[in-house]
Amino acid sequence: MVNDLVTIQEMAEATPDVTLTEAELDALVARVRAFCGWHIAPKRTEIITISSRGAAVIPLPTLRLVNVTAVRCWDGTAMVPLDSWDARTGWDPMSCTINLGGSRFPAGARALEVDVEHGFDSAPLGLLVAIAAGASPRSSI
Question: Rounded to an integer, what distance in angstroms lies between the CA atom of residue 11 and that of residue 131?
């Protein structure tokens, strides 16, 4: 993945005591994203494929859910719109989940596709400090 999270200049302004090369910054950003399990920033629109055990509420792999526009399920042949899902009420930005309002999602590996907009507009300062801390030889990031 391309480092679209933070530039060398943004890092230098946020953490003036840390000097990184572009390659070092890219490697640290990749490690932070892998550790967190999602891209963090910038905000982007993606299709996320989800495996389901048939729950009524399914968490999405994000920590800042901005919008969910569609949910599709595998019908045995193709992904088709999940008609019972409501785009207005079928997602929660606070818990970063989708729901069927009491019903259960279809179960199966890669059974759902979810069109989401998620992520922060830009990298939060605390994240930049954590990335800079990763440059330390004693870091565990």
Answer: 9
